[in-house]
């Protein structure tokens, strides 16, 4: 039959694009574009680049991906910043999810590149350098459709960031971070992010009073993760507070740790390792 001799390269571009949308960023960058011209054209469809998840890619200079990328694009040395720019450019504004590599981190330059993705609904940020944290509010200001934000730790600019999110987007339903949660932080969560359905503060310093303010202020919470926190324990009263929340995860949380921390003056370095 004639159809038996049909080649993949002859498949309609729309069909190829539908298949390529299921591939990883690694395959889209160093695999399919170099098979043939038709595959290259199909791989440039912006809808193939809507999910920019860099979590599981090995960006070390000696990794297979880094070496292949350098060879394919004839660059002397691989850089994450360059790869990010390529992915954002190919998305042409259609990216809806962005997950930075947690181990590799992100520079201020990378954040400004991400600012171009104005349709982002979900963002996962790594730890930022202390000098970069003050710039976070101006970055999130561009994400007017943001629904979900995860931060590896609470930035020093959290109050300003939460305020900016409240001004820029009214659809944020998920927040994840850890750090020392103080009275003003709890107030910012309640006042600026009133529609939260998911909140994860696990491994934080979370005093009982701040937990109470959040639980009683965020009326739409469906899931609250507060595992391995210091500052409260899930006694009968706390459990009663959270009785209206579908899922309250509090395993491992306690009032004191072995070093005796029980105030909001705890060492932030300690918070990162509990």
UniProtKB/TrEMBL annotation:
<dbReference type="InterPro" id="IPR001810">
    <property type="entry name" value="F-box_dom"/>
</dbReference>
<dbReference type="Pfam" id="PF00646">
    <property type="entry name" value="F-box"/>
</dbReference>
<dbReference type="InterPro" id="IPR036047">
    <property type="entry name" value="F-box-like_dom_sf"/>
</dbReference>
<feature type="domain" description="F-box">
    <location>
        <begin position="8"/>
        <end position="50"/>
    </location>
</feature>
<protein>
    <submittedName>
        <fullName>F-box protein SKIP19-like</fullName>
    </submittedName>
</protein>
<dbReference type="InterPro" id="IPR032675">
    <property type="entry name" value="LRR_dom_sf"/>
</dbReference>
